[in-house]
Design goal:
The chain is of the alpha/beta class. 33% of the residues lie in helices and 14% in strands. Helix 2 packs parallel to helix 3 and helix 8 packs parallel to helix 10.
């Protein structure tokens, strides 16, 4: 009888193990968080957030979307009003160093040079860099629109654009003491436009890849790595991924043309698509980036562990981890995170809940 009970116990234990929650067998190289850099008045609260929330969750990478929220000395004409000073940035640097968090600044390059009806600082001050100067900013922005305007781009072949851009990049990387730079480069709808006197009629994939190489080569001179969003390297039509999470203007072929030492930040917000495998098979390092849907994010996290656990020794290092993305300003996110301010209509699918779901404290 004892042998029978023992046998039954072993069988039941085996069945239970089959349905147990899979446990990760290794540590993700990147446990990241991406958000807009705080404004000056919100800096103390954000520093506290790093200390009390990011560090206890073992976040090891913080990408801050700076853009023009910095008092650039090389180009003061491009500063936002009330932007961060070098001394205030150093507070971020020292706090991240204290908790062994890699700090990476972002300035949107190529695309996202406007938003809705507002032109960004670069094209506002240097309008000749505009890829589509004939497209005028509307008083009231609507999508879709006859011009196909989502966000403006700068022309990657304009002879003066990189001098300005790289002076900004070098200054912000020096201030943040960073070993990497995030160039954005997502949702580029305007590239190689026919009426552009420099790049009209040229292959859009080659233009996109050429800009990636240009930025990468500049960063490489000081030992810095280029990070970009991955959507322009995915094909949107046959995959069904669409025009935002993938490309519908033929830039996707650039996936075979870009350098292999860049980091791809692969964002999918509505579905947990398994595109990291595609990027890894192309020889690229990749991070999965959720936003606001906790259940999707948990599936994406499980997938990332599964990729690493089942990959060949050549593929495994390319699956680099997870990075939570936040698309509000830092102050609004912290209000949401701490339950302050006006409640959202959807109290389940929020960036704060998504963050908590994948990175337990």
């Amino acid at each position: 009888m004892k042998k029978l009970f023992a046998l039954l116990w072993v069988v039941c234990s085996s069945i239970s193990c089959c349905f147990a929650k899979p446990q990760p067998t290794d540590t993700l190289p990147v446990r990241g968080f991406c958000i807009a850099a705080p404004r000056v008045d919100g800096l103390p609260v954000f520093l506290k957030f790093i200390e009390t929330e990011l560090a206890p969750r073992h976040i090891n990478t913080l990408v801050l979307r700076v853009d023009f929220n910095y008092q650039f000395k090389s180009h003061p004409e491009l500063r936002d009003p009330g932007s961060l000073s070098e001394q205030e940035v150093k507070q971020l640097v020292q706090t991240c160093k204290k908790y062994h968090i890699r700090l990476i600044p972002q300035i949107n390059l190529l695309g996202h040079q406007s938003w809705a009806g507002i032109t960004g600082n670069l094209l506002k001050v240097y309008p000749d860099f505009d890829e589509t100067p004939w497209v005028k900013m509307p008083v009231k922005y609507e999508w879709p629109n006859p011009d196909g305007l989502y966000c403006k781009s700068y022309c990657p072949l304009h002879p003066g654009v990189h001098k300005i851009v790289f002076e900004l990049v070098d200054e912000i990387c020096d201030a943040f003491e960073s070993t990497a730079f995030h160039a954005g480069m997502d949702e580029v709808f305007y590239i190689g436009e026919e009426k552009c006197p420099r790049c009209g009629g040229k292959d859009k994939a080659e233009l996109y890849a050429g800009e990636v190489w240009t930025i990468r080569n500049h960063l490489e001179q000081k030992g810095r790595q280029l990070w970009i969003w991955g959507d322009r390297l995915l094909e949107g039509k046959t995959t069904g991924l669409g025009a935002w999470e993938a490309s519908m203007n033929n830039t996707h072929r650039a996936v075979d043309l870009v350098p292999k030492d860049i980091m791809i930040c692969d964002w999918h917000y509505e579905r947990p698509d398994k595109t990291p495998v595609y990027f890894a098979m192309k020889g690229l390092s990749v991070i999965t980036c959720p936003w606001r849907m906790p259940e999707n994010a948990k599936l994406q996290l499980k997938d990332m562990y599964d990729y690493r656990n089942s990959a060949t020794k050549e593929m495994k290092p390319r699956f680099q981890g997870m990075m939570q993305t936040v698309w509000s300003d830092a102050g609004s996110f912290l209000d949401e995170f701490y339950g302050r301010g006006k409640p959202q209509k959807d109290t389940l699918n929020t960036s704060a809940n998504c963050f908590r779901a994948i990175f337990a404290k």
